[in-house]
Amino acid sequence: MNFPFILYILFRVIEVEGLFLAFPCITALIYREESGWYFAAVMAACLVAGAIGKKFLKPKSTILFAKDGLVAVALCWVAASMVGALPFTLSGEIPSYVDALFEMVSGFTTTGSSILTDVEAMSYCARFWRSFAHWLGGMGILVFIMAILPLGGSYNMNLMRAESPGPSVGKLVPKVKNTAKLLYQIYIFLTIVMIILLLLAGMPMFDTLTITFGTAGTGGFAILNSSCADYTTLQQAIITVFMILFGINFNVYFLIYARKVKQGLRCEEMRVYLAIIATAIILISINTRGMFTSLFQTVHHAAFQVASIITTTGYATTNFDLWPEFSKMILVLLMFIGACAGSTGGGIKVSRCIVLVKSVKSELFYALHPRSVHNVELEGHKVDKSMLCSIDRFFFMYILIFAFSVLIVSLDNFDFMTNFTAVATTINNVGPGLSLVGPTGNFHRFSNLSKFVMIFDMLVGRLEVIPMLVLFSPFMWKK
Amino acid sequence: MQIIIVGCGNVGGTLAEQLSKEDHNITVIDKKSERVRDVTEKCDVMGIVGNGAVRSVQMEAGVEEADLLIAVTDSDELNLLCCLIAKKAGKTCQTIARVRNPHYSKEAAFLKDELGLAMVINPELAAAYEIARLLKYPKAIKVETFAKGRAELLKFRVTDENPLANCQLKDIPSKLHCDVLICVVERGEDVVIPDGNFTIRSGDLISVVSTSKNIQQFFRKLGMTSARVKNAMIIGGGSTSFYLAKQLIANGIQVKIVEKDKERCRDLCEHLPEATIIMGDGTDRSLLLEEGIEDAQSFISMTNIDEENIMLSLYAKMVSQAKLVTKVHRISYNELIGPLDLGSVIYPKYITAENIIRYVRALSNSMGSNVETLYKLIEDRAEALEFYIRGDSPVVGVPLQDLNLKSNILIAAINHNGTVITPGGQSRIYRGDTVVVITTRTGLHDIRDILQE
Q: pTM for this one?
């Protein structure tokens, strides 16, 4: 293990987080809020820590093997969340540090589950920081650092692989640094387009920025207690479209950018993803007919909720906890499917689901024709055995962690629906669940133990299981 | 530059590692996914699994924007085909092919002219050239050339009887009256760029830079024979041995080749009538003694087995005064062999990679970088670079003693209109010169990088 270098990266992450804390400080200046001082204090502390790290922790070797990459990423996310939560507690807006940590992890992992009973009572700068965390966490903090800082060494791919979602993380261009830069360029471009469209649709500046950050990172923190219900239909429609866009594999955008539009649109994962969305919207529209004033409104709300859940964003325009059971169940299933690999969304990922379904089909075929030779294919390429195994195991670990989490959370003695969907929504980085944690409820009722379990689940979901498990695995620390 | 490397074997891997460090954008192609994974895990490169001679695979690797395609798979035919396809599929793609079959590589000139290849490299031939160059200076462990061959860099070990031992560097000019610069000293683990107060000890490995003539004079004054070897004993009759023997014979050196295989012996005998071919086991002690290993002036172990070569050289070192050259395939043996003092060790794959890298550097030089040649003197610890000086450079026209250089940087030679001088404090650098800089820093890209900021 190359601990000196991991520590060095850790300090750089904190330094960069300090730089980003400037944004809530500016917000505080504009709205003349006193909480801004606490953000400024934490920001100063981060910058000092970064300077110290740069000066004294210059590592000898910059080699990062796969395990170093996993540990570095896991530790960075934990550290970034712990630092990011400080201003909330210091300013007294979220008195309990565990609650603040829950809120911050929920921000960075782009979950959007909140322990706040009244969001509107929060200061502007605190709300801005929460939403900005979504934007940062969506594409990844370390990916950002790799795009702008020369970390040295040629092993950075191990960092990127550990942080980016998807079963196989590849590069867009030969250099990690340039790949990271390209990803952020696409990300920033889409973000800016959405900001402009929302402003044109008449949304106030502060709402536009925070809602855009939440959508881009597929997070889901809103700045109003009603989430997105109070915005106009046009604004909601823009949010729907962009939620879906940010849930698509960024490879597609890269191919379009590289003028290989045809190849980009052929992406199997994207097609399946869009097909699932369309099917879900139709089924829910039929199931909820009569609940809204017109057919258009029915489809509109169904589309918003479906996009919000499958991309694991978690905004709501209506209290879908009141929907019929069939529609609610569809939403719960969508939570697990999640968005495309290589997007900012969470969940199991569409590509993994495709492979899982195809391997079931292949297994059945094999049962009927034991001598048959059959390949599982994705995007026209054969999925090799080791990849199949790792996807199967990923799925199993996911379900295992999910089951244990539900078990521990049920100590709080809430109803089944609450426990089940609370864990489902956190591990899949969605945001709202059903029943007590539905769109109008929140997570403040849970005990600290349950909150810690869900903090762990959110990180597990965002970093795709392995980094977090490695961090707590005894094999890792045995000499 | 955008570079595509087809084939991820030893040479491909070494190329990818070195070129990606030098900030080129590398894409590697290989048929075997494990090999691609190995390389992409070790270096910052993009990997594609597939046949490199297929156009769609090359397109996926971005051949349209690529500046260079290097084909180094095991198969000559595939390499040539890759280059032909890339030539047509790419817009401005230059190509390099490794071709080891002597029948093809004999026609390198035709391949280059008619098929448009930028470089055809035969690894065995390249290794043979390198060995022949080493035999020119029997005392030197390593010989590199700069300024189109006008300046040379030699590395040798200081022995007890050498007058340099226990001598301070500043005393050397008055003692020897020789225009030679001692630029790097290796002592055990340490690598130093010495200053005037540095004292040389016996056992140090020192590297000197100057013109070929000066170095020969320097060697004579040190009492070291600078004459070429008169005879060579080569163990193993592979293609490298063949090429080497051919060159040595042309240089008037007596050659004796020991080879086990009868058929191969016949072949060699037919093509090298001047050489003495001995059929027998090179590891047989009595055979070596019989063939006069004790009087051999140079001993070159080139069997296919690394371990055997190392043992043979150790034995030759014990019984003779010969200049030793040992061929080793596995680069990972490097650290083990170092302390054995085996003389010159040749890594054929490394030589191929080095030759290609030299070409790439020259190519990127014409695209804006100013590094003319770059040699790794000691693996990642010291480099010798040759810079081309453009007019706007801040070093132009200033006496060297007034330049504010970074630490651990030495200007070793200036090539001014074809005359190489060993610089002193009053020397100046002019536009159009090339300058050899020795440094223990890495990552110099331009002559201005040697100045303090």
A: 0.82
Q: Is A309 exposed, middle or buried (0-12, 13-18, 19+ CB in 10 A)?
A: buried
Q: Say how far apart CA A450 and CA B254 lie, in whole Å.
A: 85
CB nearest A173 (choices: B25, B41, B42) = B25
User: Is B288 contained in some domain?
Assistant: yes
Please check whether residues B105 and B186 belong to one and the same domain.
no
Which residue of B lies nearest to A381 if distances are taken between CA atoms?
B49
Residue A210 has pLDDT above 90, yes or no: yes
Cβ of A154 within 8 Å of Cβ of B20? The answer is yes
Question: Least CB-CB distance to A173: which of B20, B21, B46?
Answer: B46
Q: Quick check: A61 contacting B, CB < 8 Å?
A: no
Q: Tell me, what amino acid is at A261? A: V
Domain residues for B237? 231-342
The ipTM value here is 0.77
Interface contact B25-A176, CB threshold 8 A: no
Domain of residue A461 covers 387-477
Q: What pLDDT does residue A461 have?
A: 92
Q: What would the pLDDT profile of A356-382 be if each residue is shown by its tens digit? A: 999 999 999 989 998 888 888 888 888
Q: Which CATH number characterizes residue B387's domain?
A: 3.30.70.1450
Q: What is the reported pLDDT for A155?
A: 58
Mean pLDDT of B206-222: 82
- CA separation for the pair B137, B132 (Å, rounded): 9
Q: Where are the beta strands (DSSP E) in A276-413?
A: 377-378, 381-382
Whether residue A454 lies within 8 A of chain B, CB to CB, comes out as no
Residue A223 lies in a domain: no
- Number of CB pairs < 8 Å for A and B? 33
For the segment A428-453, what is each residue's pLDDT rounded down to a tens digit? 999 899 988 988 888 999 999 999 99
A175 to B21: CB separation less than 8 angstroms, yes or no:
no
Cross-chain residue pair A154–B44, CB shorter than 8 Å: yes
The predicted structure's pLDDT at residue B203: 81
Does A176 touch chain B if contact means CB atoms closer than 8 Å? Answer: yes
Helices (H), B321-420: 334-337, 348-365
